[in-house]
Design brief:
The protein is α/β, with parallel strands linked by helices. It has one domain: P-loop containing nucleotide triphosphate hydrolases (Rossmann fold). It is 28% helix and 24% strand. The chain is built from five helices and six strands. The longest helix is centred in the N-terminal third of the chain and has 14 residues. Bound molecules: adenosine-5'-diphosphate and magnesium ion. The site of adenosine-5'-diphosphate has 17 residues, from α2, α3 and β6.
């Protein structure tokens, strides 16, 4: 299997306890091969590296205004231009209610975004397609510089 294929990157090609450089390199490679439409969810505690990984994926996709890929205090949904169509980045950490999701037009976003990257997807449980790519990051008890990376991609295995 090609070392840069999606199935490989989500399986054997995914680093188990990456340092930041390794996680970013993996994120860039993943971004370069993501299909469309696609939803990628990113779970894990504050400061574990979700936005860092989102940014790397966006680099791989070809988002040019990469400095815009952050988690600003007040916007829950951001959209970035990329050569093959827009990338939507949602950070649902500050979401207060399902009503707020409705106000954001969330269902429409989920249905129409070619690429949707979602931090804190548990805040929007049951609104995301089952065949999303689920990324879970955790702190590594053995190393402050590393993160534990797990991926669930039911339709791809
Ligand atoms: N192995 C690693 N992977 C990702 N981030 C790391 C790693 N080691 C240290 N970091 C640092 O942890 C922080 C993660 O922040 P961020 O990506 O904003 O987290 P989150 O979006 O999950 O709250 C960054 O300051 C990053 O430099
Ligand atoms: Mg974040």
């Amino acid at each position: 299997m090609a070392a840069d294929s999606l199935v490989y990157l989500l399986g054997r090609g995914a680093p188990r306890a990456p340092d930041r450089d390794t996680l970013e390199a993996w994120g860039r490679a993943l971004g370069a091969v993501l299909p469309r439409p696609v939803v990628v969810t990113l779970e894990g505690d504050l400061g574990v590296g979700k936005t860092t990984l989102v940014r790397a994926i966006c680099v791989g996709i070809g988002v040019s205004a990469i400095e815009a890929v952050t988690s600003p205090t007040f916007s829950i949904i951001q959209q970035y231009d990329a050569p093959r169509g827009p990338v939507v980045h949602a950070d649902l950490y500050r979401l207060r209610s399902d009503a707020e999701l409705a106000l954001l037009g969330w269902d429409e976003v989920v249905d129409s975004a070619p690429v949707l990257l979602v931090e804190w997807p548990d805040r929007a449980e049951n609104t995301l397609p089952r065949d999303s790519i689920h990324v879970v990051l955790a702190h590594d008890p053995e190393s402050a510089d590393r993160r534990l990376l797990r991926i669930h991609a039911p339709t791809l295995r």
